Amino acid sequence: MIRLCLLLLVLAGLPLGVAEAGCDDPPGRGVIWTACDKQGFDLKGLDLRGAVFLRSNLAGADLSGARASDADFSLVNLEGARLDNARLNRARFVRANLRNAHLSKALLSDASLDDATLQGADLGGARLSGAKLYQTDLTGARLPRADLREADLTRAKLTDADLSEANLSGAILQGAVLEDALLPGANLARANLTQANLLFADLTGADLTGAILVQAKLGDARLEGARLDKARWVDRRRCEAGSVGECR
């Protein structure tokens, strides 16, 4: 009888010893929920490391404090979801909907958020060092004191975003749109802002030491007290050491 069951599993193409997860499986480490409707679910503080939520609906769900390192949230609807203080390092949110989601103080280092939507999301104090945010929509998002060191924000949309005192040192912001963005006191040392749109941005007191601003749009940007030591200016000039508020 056992041999017959094993034969049937092989013929069905199922790997031996591996359970086929489904939407009715309880949440936990390594669970596979594909295209499942879990809107408003309470997943607070759970161990969801390595879990797969591909194309699922988690709108309004509570994942605050959850341990979800290496989890896959690609194409997931997380609109309005709570992920405050969640451990999401190396997690994938490619093309996910995180509009108005709560991610304050979340750990997102080395996470992939390419093409994700985070309009109006709260990422205050979030740790995003080394994260990938290519073409990510962060319009109106809140990122005060967020850690974005070495993050890739190429062509990201950051119009009206609040990046006050955020750490963007070494970040890649080529072609990013930062129009009307708030960056007072932000650390942009060695950041690559080539062809970035900084029209009307507030860079008061920001540190742009060694930053690359070649062909960036800085019309009506506020630069009072901004450090520009050795920065590469829009016209490719190298700013002198001690340049503050203007490239000398």
How would you portray this structure in words?
The protein is low in regular secondary structure. The protein is 4% helix and 0% strand. Residues 1-20 have low confidence and may be disordered.
Question: What is the secondary structure topology, with strand pairs?
Answer:
Blueprint: H1 2-11
What is the β-strand count?
0
Mean pLDDT: 93
Oligomer: single chain
- Broad shape: elongated
- H/E element order: H
In the CATH hierarchy, what is the superfamily of the largest domain?
A: E3 ubiquitin-protein ligase SopA
**Unreliable parts:** 1-20
* Biggest sheet details: none
Query: Which CATH class of the largest domain?
Result: Mainly Beta
State the main characteristics.
Pectate Lyase C-like, little secondary structure, 1 helix, disordered N terminus, elongated, about 250 residues
